[in-house]
Amino acid sequence: MAEIPTRTTYTVDSLLAVTVQVFNARGYDGTSMEDLSRAAGISKSSIYHHVRGKEELLRLAVGRALDGLFGILEEPEASSGRPVDRLEHVVRRTAEVLLAELPYVTLLLRVRGNTGTEQWALERRRDFDHRVAELLREAVAAGELRADVEPRLATRLLFGMINSIVEWYRPDHGQTDEIPDAVVRLAFDGLRAV
Amino acid sequence: MAEIPTRTTYTVDSLLAVTVQVFNARGYDGTSMEDLSRAAGISKSSIYHHVRGKEELLRLAVGRALDGLFGILEEPEASSGRPVDRLEHVVRRTAEVLLAELPYVTLLLRVRGNTGTEQWALERRRDFDHRVAELLREAVAAGELRADVEPRLATRLLFGMINSIVEWYRPDHGQTDEIPDAVVRLAFDGLRAV
Q1: What is the pLDDT along chain B (194 residues), one digit of tens a residue?
Q2: Which residue of A84, A163, B127, B183 shows the fewest CB atoms closer than 10 Å?
Q3: Ranges for the HTH tetR-type domain (chains A, B) (predicted)?
C-alpha cells in the first residue's frame, strides 16, 4: 500500500478511500484492523474514533457504491419517457457511476460472504438488477426491445458486460468518456454495421 | 466437497475433475495437496503417481480450457468466409465451450498469480483475446462491423459479457442452448427491436 500517502488527520471519507483500496487488494476477510491502521498510518484507536469496526467500514464503502447506483433510478431521465430511453439512460449512467466510483463498485461486486453487511449488500445489488430487469421487460412489452432474448438472461449479459469494466479498466488508461458510449452502442445496437 | 463422490481408481482426467472443483472453491493458492487428497479420497502418494504436484494439476486443468478455446480458431467456420461470420462463429462457440467446460474455464478466468504456470495461462488467454480482437478488426475493415467502437474496447466488452456467464450460470438452470444464441444476438444486433 506504499502508493497511498499517509496523513495524520482523517475524515470518515478519507479513511474510506484508504480502506476500500486495502479491502480490494487483500479481500475483506483477509483484512485486519491492524492492516487498515498500517495503511492509513494512524492508530487503531483513531480508526475506532470514526467507526465501530471493519464491518461498519464495509457498510459505508459498499453503501457509497449502492447510493450511486440507486441514485440513477431517481434521475428524471430514468423515471419518465419511453421505457427504452429510460433503460438506455440507466445503462449509460451505470457505466459512468462504475467509473466514477471505481474502487467502491469493485468492492461491491466482489462481496460474497456471510456477515450481515455482506448479505445486505448482495440483496441491494439484486434489488438494483431486478429494477433494471423490470425496465427491460417494460421496453420489450412496448415493442421497443427484441422479444427473442429472455429478459432475465438479457439483464445478466448486460450487467456482465458493464461489470467487467472493473476487471480491465485502469484509471491511467484515460478513455473514461468513450466507455459508457461503447457500452450503450453495443448493448442496444450491437457490433454489426447498419 | 461432500457432493463429490469419492472413488478408489483414478485416471488423470477423473483426478482433474475433482481438482478443478477444489481449486475453484478454495482458490489455487489456498489449496494444499492434503486438501486434494481428502477431496479425492486417495492418498497423496497416489496423486503423485499421476502428476508431479499441484502446479502440474493446474497446468492440465487450465490447459483443457485453453485447448477448447484455441480449438475453436481451427474450426473451418472460423478460418474461412466473411470476417463477420467467422467472428460470429467464434463468439457462439466460445460461449458453448465455456458452458461445456464450465469448471475448467472458470478456473482459467480466475488465474491471477505469479507461478510460471499461472503466467503461461494469462499469456495464452491474452493470445486468444488478441486473435479475436484481430478478427474483429478485419470485420470492421471490411465494413461489416461498426467503426465507432474501438476494437480493443469492443473485444473487452464482448468477453466481459461472455465470461460473466461463469459468475451466474448454474448447471441446474438448464437453458444451455439459449445462452450462446442470446450472446450472439446481443453482441451483433443489440437489444433494440428492429
Answers
A1: 445 555 567 888 999 999 999 999 999 999 999 999 999 999 999 999 999 999 999 999 999 999 999 999 999 999 999 999 999 999 999 999 999 999 999 999 999 888 999 999 999 999 999 999 999 999 999 999 999 999 999 999 999 999 999 999 987 766 678 999 999 999 999 999 98
A2: B127
A3: 9-69
* β partners of residue A145: B192
Nearest chain A residue to B184 by CA distance is: A190
ipTM of the complex: 0.90
- When the candidates are 3.50.30.40, 1.10.630.10, 1.10.357.10, 1.10.3720.10, the CATH number that belongs to B55-189 is 1.10.357.10
Start and end residues for every CATH 1.10.357.10 domain found in chain B: 55-189
Are residues A191 and B187, on separate chains, in Cβ contact within 8 Å?
Answer: yes
**CB-CB neighbors (< 8 A) of A168 in chain B:** 156, 160
Fold (CATH) for A12-51:
Arc Repressor Mutant, subunit A (1.10.10)
How many whole angstroms separate alpha carbon A41 and alpha carbon A106?
24
Of B114, B102, B119, B74, which Cα lies nearest the Cα of B162? B102
In the numeric block, the cell 480502506 is attached to A19
